[in-house]
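ERR on first pass: missing label on line 2. Operator R.T. fixed the label and resubmitted. Corrected input:
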Amino acid sequence: MSARSDHMLDEQIAQWRAYLRRRRAIDAPDVEELETHLRDQVSALTQAGLAEDEAFLVAVKRMGSLDALSREFAREHSERLWKQLVIAADDDAAPKTVSRTETLVVFALAVAAAIAIKIPALFGLEVGDKNDEAFYARNASFFVLPFLTGYFAWKRQIDPRHRAWLAVPFIAAAVAVNAFPFTRGSHTEALSALHLPIALWLVVGLAYLGGHWLEGGGRMDFVRFSGELFIYYVLIALGGVVLTAFTMMMFKAIGMTPDWIAQDWMIPCGAMGAVLVGSWLVEAKQSVIENMAPVLTRLFTPLFTILLLVFLATMAWTGRPIDIKREVLIAFDLLLAMVVGLVLYSASARDPEAQPNLFDRLQLLLIASALVVDAVALAAIASRISEFGFTPNRVAVLGENLILLVNLTWSAWLYAGFLRGRTPFRALEAWQTAYLPVYSIWAALVVVLFPPLFAYA
Amino acid sequence: MDLGKDLVAASSTPLVLAILAEGESYGYAIIKRVRDLSDGHLLWTDGMLYPVLHRLERNGLVAAKWGSSSSGRRRKYYRLTKAGRAELETERKRWQMVDETLHRIWMKTCLA
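pass 2 clean. output:
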């Protein structure tokens, strides 16, 4: 057997192994077992006088078709069809998704975030205290987002000189929201607290992308990451609720009142740590498990479209005008944000090269009906806004409405162009990702400019 | 002769157990032994043996451990467990019963 033909055989077997590896039901030790079998067969056949490549073909044929084989393995090992995240497979073929160092770093950062939220308590500010609520609301972002940014700065190996720049927005924001002389319980303070996380999320995104915001592709990954993180966070929070409930129940059973453990420790520390743990899970599983956000999008796009159409039809039929109350505009803002989210996440999971399909038409219908509903609401509000004058709440809410309206109008235009085959789908994706900073910049304006503009009222 | 899928599947368990009752073995050797025993009539698709072995392992009828082959590659060796020996005995009785029943009716048709 010459070295050359030996090499050829190795190559052929490597290729066969690669095909086998792609079957989920067949794991690495199985592949190894089958390969040993194949090699035994080949050497037996060559000893019987066959040429090596002939022997290989016969051996592969005798092994059976890959489809049938993987079906048999799947029947025996059905658990393998469920992609496992926690049980890390002892697998050399696929690169390890999570390193031990990373696990330690994340754990340390999660603990640090949990401790961070308890530091103000040393200065007499308690999470559960009514008087200190405003402080925690304004500063909530600072207990967790810097750690999350740090995690990505570490993971993406951002140049230490650039890391310092990532800290600047956090410091500036912390100084601003704590130095402003807010009136107690003022609207501008509530607006700041609400908008700060949105503004700072852009900084997290910058770290997530390794400091290269402008380099295309990655931004959609950040959108995907954000959606998955939200879902993971909700799941972890559900688990946390169960854990807290059991803590209360069990300690009450022995006549103790553990409320303070839950209120002052478990809930705040857990809420902070869970952001980091959730982010780490999303990072670790991105190639392992199907993304959930696009699945939910697919599920709810038709339902929201029906809701909007029925709402419009009802309004036209009954002739009922929109009852202008404080919450109405906020509700319509949230509706638009929801629709933008649906568009964004369905774009995130779509193959940009695929032809327009029914779902794309549905998306356009959804956007169009949302635009009509919002136009009706805006018209109703515009007629009364001069009467009410400009309060910070109203300006913030109107501004957001405008931002979302612009996004959706142009999205509708691009979608229509795409359905008629004039613009590629990439244009819509590019528009959505290019628009992302707008939300954060507007939020930053609300945080920084509104309080002085409206005299901290 | 083509045995048909069902018969191959049904006979695989007693065959594998019986071969392992002769001593520890591995996949390729088991296939080869089946071929020799049946004078080349019983041809299994080689790959299909492994899910069978894994099922027997899961049910505790055989035990497996990794060893190395003469060429130095890792190889998984299987041996019969106590439960496997008992199962082999039950299987033998079942097949004997089927065999006897068929035998009787075929004898009758031959004589008639």
